[in-house]
Amino acid sequence: MNETEKPMTMSLREEYDQQGYCIARGAIDTGLAAQMVNHVHWLMERHPDIRPEHLGHSLLVDDPFMHRLVCDERLVDVAEQFLGPNVAMFAAHYIAKGPHKGQAVQWHQDGSYWPLEPMEVATLWVAGTDSVVDNGCMRVLPGTQNVRLRRQSEMVELDPEKFVLGVGIHPDEIDEVDAVDLQLQAGDVSIHNPTIIHGSNANTSDRWRVGLTLRYIPTTTHVTNENHASILCRGDATPGVDNLYASTPIWTQGEHMEFDGSQMWGHQQNV
């Protein structure tokens, strides 16, 4: 079977295993990507005290649009290729960078921050807008998925006015000569390993960069933070793994953002 005949499942997984990351082009349609952007601005209006780079899981886990998005068959199909048939999403986080003032994300490894045992997880980074060099696209260091996962105690504090995360890898430990810019169009999805070193620069352009990180896990992985709710996306919870799963929220006019199919959301799912 030649390269053009390989199914996407093989090529994605092969690239991921070799490089620590891969890209699924056009994973969702541009209409859904645009609704992601609308969601960011809707959240910003309701939480003006929170920077758009910090629209995190606690704001999203009970949101009907987020449930609709993370359980989209196309995204879960991608996640299943790396995790198996029983898939949950344990954490979601919009990192939206405004024009000329969007913060950088310091070099880091995702797994250093996550309360997961074992560390079986695949991050899907969903592009709501085009994500390119001048508006601060993600950058990765290929091959670093094979290095040791650093503890938070080994990292340094960085200026919270300039960087999204509280701590990161010391800049002296990073050689950026081999960094790869993951340039995406709206609707593309990159998938990366929890150990690969990655980050992004500030947004110096005149347009938004909206990305959503979705951390999918197999239901055999235990989320060790007590009372942390995940979203069960496909298959079944694993007996003996004490994870908490959020109920499907019912869309309420005036309380939630309107989206395609929103008026029925939660009613059909809870039948």
In short:
This protein is 19% helix and 23% strand.
Description:
With 271 residues, the chain is an alpha+beta fold. It has a single domain, classed as Sandwich (Jelly Rolls). The chain has a 7-stranded mixed β-sheet. Strands 3-11-6-9 form a 4-stranded antiparallel β-sheet, with no helix packed on it. A two-stranded antiparallel ribbon has the order 4-13. It starts with 7 loop residues before the first helix and ends in a 26-residue tail after the last strand. 19% of the residues lie in helices and 23% in strands. The protein has 5 helices and 15 strands.
- This entry's quaternary arrangement is single chain
* Unreliable residue runs: 1-9
Helix content: 10-25%
Number of domains: 1
Given helix and strand content, the structural type is alpha+beta
Approximately how much beta-strand content do the residues carry?
15-25%
- What does the main sheet amount to? 7 strands, mixed
The count of strands amounts to 15
The radius of gyration is: 18 Å
Written as H for each helix and E for each strand, in order along the chain, the element string is HEHHHHEEEEEEEEEEEEEE
**Count of helical regions:** 5
CATH architecture grouping = Sandwich
* CATH class group: Mainly Beta
Q: What brief labels describe this structure?
A:
single chain, alpha+beta, 19% helix, globular, 4-stranded antiparallel β-sheet, disordered N terminus, 15 strands, 271 residues, Jelly Rolls, 5 helices, 7-stranded mixed β-sheet, 23% strand
